[in-house]
Amino acid sequence: MAWDLDALIEKAQRRELLPENTIRELCNKAKELLLSEDNVRHVQAPVTVVGDVHGQFYDVLEIFRIGGQCPDTNYVFLGDYVDRGYYSVETITLLLCLKVRYPDRVTLVRGNHECRAVTQVYGFYNECCEKYKGGLVWSYFTDVFDYLVLAVVISDTILCIHGGLSPSLHTLDQIRVIDRFREIPHDGPMADLVWSDPQQVDGDEISGFTLSPRGAGYIFGEDVTRHFLEINGFGHICRAHQLCMEGYQILFDDMLSTVWSAPNYCYRVGNMASLLEIGPGLERYFNVFAACPDDQRTSDPQGGEVSFKALVQELLMEEDERKSKDFQKSYDSYSQNVALDVQDTGIVTNFRTSKTLSQYFI
Amino acid sequence: MDRDDAVRSTNDDALVCKLSAATTGYLADPFVSVLLKRLPHRVAPIMHRGTYVRTAALDALVARFMGVAAAAGRRSQVVSLGAGSDTRFLLLKEGRRNPGLYVEIDFPQITSKKAMALARGRTTKPLLGDFQVGAGGAEIIAQDYWLLAGDLRNFASEILPRLVRMGLQPSEPTLFLSECVMIYLDPTVSDAIVAAAASEFSAPFFVTYEQILPDDAFGRVMISNLKARNIELPGIFAHPTLHSQVERYMSAGFTVARAIDINEVWDKHISLEEKARLARLEIFDEVEEWVLLSRHYCISWTAKVSDGSGLSQELALRGWLSSD
């Protein structure tokens, strides 16, 4: 297949899976690009900052509808592209295509889910194995994750990271010297950047850093935040990582904000989501939105009946294209038949493609 | 899929979560694999933790109930409504901590599968002792364990009289268990069950685990998601809060009642050692969702203890779910 990024993007937007060797090629090109990017990437406003999306592909399309298509709008994504949602593969594929196509208009920051350990527990690994019949594609993607940047600074004023601050990091330069090209470690400054949380409004006021209930990273308070901003000459920190029912949260007298971009998270939480739109004068606006309406979440790009004409066309198709169509079929049939063979007798109980399979206690 | 089928399908979900929690190490349960051979899909850590917490809480309440009965020198009886694929009796029997009588009731479609599995399982059959299979393979009747087919909509009119005829003693301490069961019933039916337990028994106890809080964003989405699977929760609107859970028992004639949500169970009643043990099993990155989900599930328990019954009212209430 000739390498045509625009064609790939179009396919990705239709939620068609790209063939395995295309994914490998895409990941290689992404790594080449990202290798030359600093741990801390500098971009200029205007720019739109996007929080966790967690494989909610249709809501990502909604984000582009609301925030503007690439490359018209400049985007910074703050990580957590995969896990939890049903379409992590399609989501990360689309975002990597856009990054490779418009490298100066898309920035991808690493989240705590962009690592091998977490994706094996929270769904991305399983999804890759189901959709690509094996773990190779997962390894291509997780290799790219090792290359994602750790932080973004917008117009020398707004620092963007996935999680939060670290007791080991007082200055931007300390972030710059981290060796990021590796799996996220269990602790240390790189882990803290993707796992930490600011202390919540209804918690007891803390000073400095305390241990996080997540088991990695820290909880940090207002004093630490103020100190970091002053030392580095920043005006604001924007991060993601924490679910916000209203789509965003502003803390510490507007020194820090959380942007959350996965509406009705896990198809269960019923929350709003938002995009942080930063204007040319660094004005900050949270554009709040709800989940993509159900009737726009189509399941089947191939439609129902196959006409004779289509059959003939299929016969005349090139080998590569035919292969990709075949495996598109098996992917669709997986997503449409969530079958439960609870008695292991070969008799399956068919649920309608269910959003609630083991999501509630019932 | 009709309504009853949809309700029966909830047992499949619970069974998958239970098996996954057991194989991951949250729960020690060698019997659940007799009922389900392999996992059809992955189960998230949040569901493992929730399965662990609900099992721990109900186990503690059942154990406490039996302790109260034993302290008074009385025979204890447990009636598990809509028991589904629950393995509690097997675990108790294996540990020789089972009550005088343990009764499980569910739809015949469910009891027949369970009866077959238990009667033939290499590890389960010995625990039944001498038993008979009845109702065309849908029931097991052993000396201390009855697996019976029935429709809870006929609890007061048919099931309860039958149990009494078979030998359930209304004068002995009896615990009724509803683990995500009454919520599926019309409130008039579930009220009738609670009322029958209160009025027909001298020393009735009742324990319920089910959903609450239908009116916030999470609750509304939950109800709509379940509706997409044809599962309705009529009980959640009748008893939507912890307070109304307590009320449902008190107004039926019980004398003491309490209700707490799963957050409170996790925060106050699971030891630090246990929490540390669970933390070592797998990564848990769902803290906010856990709190939200757990807010929507409650454990409520109640007793009707009259003076002269030999059962301490205070012990019945205070002793449940505390460490003493």
TrEMBL record, chain A:
Q: What is its EC number?
A: 3.1.3.16
Q: Which gene encodes it?
A: PPG1
Entry-linked Pfam families:
Metallophos
Q: Which InterPro entries match?
A: Calcineurin-like_PHP, Metallo-depent_PP-like, PPA2-like, Ser/Thr-sp_prot-phosphatase
Q: Where is the Serine/threonine specific protein phosphatases domain?
A: 109-114
EC category: hydrolase
Q: Which reaction does it catalyse?
A: O-phospho-L-threonyl-[protein] + H2O = L-threonyl-[protein] + phosphate
Which family is this protein grouped under? Belongs to the PPP phosphatase family.
MF term (GO), any = protein serine/threonine phosphatase activity
Q: Which organism is it from?
A: Polyrhizophydium stewartii
Q: What is this protein called?
A: Serine/threonine-protein phosphatase
Keywords, A to Z, come to:
Hydrolase, Manganese, Metal-binding
Q: Does the keyword Ion transport apply?
A: no
TrEMBL record, chain B:
TM segments? Answer: none
Recorded hits in InterPro entries, A to Z, give: LCMT1 (IPR016651), Ppm1/Ppm2/Tcmp (IPR007213), SAM-dependent_MTases_sf (IPR029063)
Q: Name one GO molecular function term.
A: protein C-terminal leucine carboxyl O-methyltransferase activity
Q: Does the keyword Methyltransferase apply?
A: yes
- Which reaction is this enzyme known to catalyze? [phosphatase 2A protein]-C-terminal L-leucine + S-adenosyl-L-methionine = [phosphatase 2A protein]-C-terminal L-leucine methyl ester + S-adenosyl-L-homocysteine
Enzyme Commission identifier(s):
2.1.1.233
Q: Which domain of life is it from?
A: Eukaryota
Question: A biological process (GO) annotation for this entry?
Answer: methylation
Alphabetically ordered keywords of this record? Methyltransferase, S-adenosyl-L-methionine, Transferase
Q: Name one Pfam family in it.
A: LCM
The family this protein is said to belong to: Belongs to the methyltransferase superfamily. LCMT family.
Outline what the protein does: Methylates the carboxyl group of the C-terminal leucine residue of protein phosphatase 2A catalytic subunits to form alpha-leucine ester residues.
Q: What is this protein called?
A: Leucine carboxyl methyltransferase 1
The species this protein was found in: Polyrhizophydium stewartii
Source species taxonomy: Eukaryota, Fungi, Fungi incertae sedis, Chytridiomycota, Chytridiomycota incertae sedis
Chain's gene name:
PPM1
